Structures are given as structure tokens and as C-alpha cells.
Amino acid sequence: MQSVAGEHERAGMTSQKNQQDQGHGLRTPLEGVAAKPLTPGEPIAAPLHLISPTVPRDWVDYNGHMSESCYLLAFGDQSDAFFRLIGIDEAYRAGGHSLFTVQTMIFNLAEAHLGDRLDLSLQLLDADDKRLHIFHAMYNAETGDLLATGEQMLVHVDMAAGRSAPMPADLHARVEAVLAAHADLPRPAQAGRHIAIKRNPS
Question: Distance (Å, rounded) from C-alpha 195 to C-alpha 197?
Fold first, then answer.
């Protein structure tokens, strides 16, 4: 009789092989879900609220709270949800283009713990034909406390050429629609800041 452990081991090996065959291991919750792009004139929330994860045990570190790397992981999952809103999914990337992150700044403002439900928002601060400047905010969904922010610059790339490339007209039009919808939002206090040790003047 074959053991359950043996079956699980083989299943794990098959899963690993499938991931290797597909070229990557790290996956987003929406991976494989086809994009449902915005349509012209469709109302756009300002800011967008695209995901609301609950902190799992895998995100908790030896300090007993959500680990710093997992804030970026959560923001990345929300970026992926945003990509699908503007029309970027597996089919789009298979055509040879994608959005790459070139700069990130995260502010960790308060702790999140196992089982906490999070509410994430996304604001599009600026964009042109190649770049998107986005701003994530993470809140405790129960208390409303701001836990972290993440500011990112994304670049549209031609993956075969290995360089930046203009977005196609339909994608750029959807980005511009989001930018217009977010134009009247206040600029977040953390946006555009840099890392430095503040010193009192002597």
C-alpha cells in the first residue's frame, strides 16, 4: 500500500516541476485570472481599493508581527490587481510587454499581526506614456489605522528588447482615465520623501 506521505511528496514534486516548467515559483493571488479592463466612461474609485488580505502565519516573523518583506509582497499583490484593471495579464505579458518596478519607498508606520485584516488602497500620482507613479496605503481594516505606505515607479518594458517602451494606445488611455479620476486626491504626506537622519540644528 502506498503511503499518504509518499503521495503528498509526489504531489509536491509534481507541483514544483509544473512551476519550473512555467518559468517561476512566486505567484500572486490573481495569477491566471484574465484581466477585466476598464471600459470608457466606467466610474473609477478614488483611491482604488483592490485587495483586503488577512495576515497569514507565513507573514509573521520572529518579532511576532508582520515581516517587513511581506508589506512589499502585499503591495505587489495589489499592483497585480491594478494591472488587470488596466488590461495587463498573462496574455498581455505573453505578447512581450510588461510593467517593471524600478523604485520603491516603504514607510512602516504601525504593526500588523497574525489574523489582522488589511485594507489596501492605491492612488495613481502621475503617469506618462512609459511610466506610472503609484502610491499604496495599508490600513488595519478594523481600526482604520494607517500601517504602511509604499510608493513606486513602474516602467512599461519591451521584454525582448530589454528596454522601456511606450504603452499601446488602449492601455495608455485606461491609465490616463485613472489618473484623471485621482487628480483631485490630496498628495500623501509620505510621497516623494527620502531617507535621512534628521538632526537638530546646533
Answer: 7
SS3 label, residue 131:
strand
Type of residue numbered 91: A
CA distances to 125, 139, 165 from 142, rounded to whole Å, are 27, 9, 42
Instruction: Concatenate the DSSP letters of all residues of 144-183 into one string.
Output: --EEEEEEEEEEEEETTTTEE-PPPHHHHHHHHHHHHHTT
What is 45-181's CATH topology?
A: Thiol Ester Dehydrase; Chain A (3.10.129)
Distance CA 27, CA 8 (A): 21
Q: Cell 505587489 appears where?
A: 76
pLDDT band at 21 (very low <50, low <70, confident <90, very high): low
Query: Could you give the CA distance from residue 33 to residue 5 in angstroms, rounded to a whole number?
Result: 31
Task: Output the pTM of the full model.
Answer: 0.85
Question: Over the stretch 117-157, which tens digit does the pLDDT of each residue have?
Answer: 999 999 999 999 999 999 999 999 999 999 999 999 999 99
| Confidence at residue 22, expressed as pLDDT on a 0 to 100 scale | 61
Is residue 82 a contact partner of residue 122, using CB atoms and an 8 Å limit? Answer: yes
DSSP 54: B
Pairwise CA distance, residues 22 & 90, whole Å: 12
Residue 176, φ and ψ in degrees, nearest 5: -65, -35
With residues binned 3-state (H G I as helix, E B as strand, rest as coil), the percentages for the chain, rounded to 5, are 30, 25, 45
Please say whether the beta carbons of 165 and 82 come within 8 A.
no
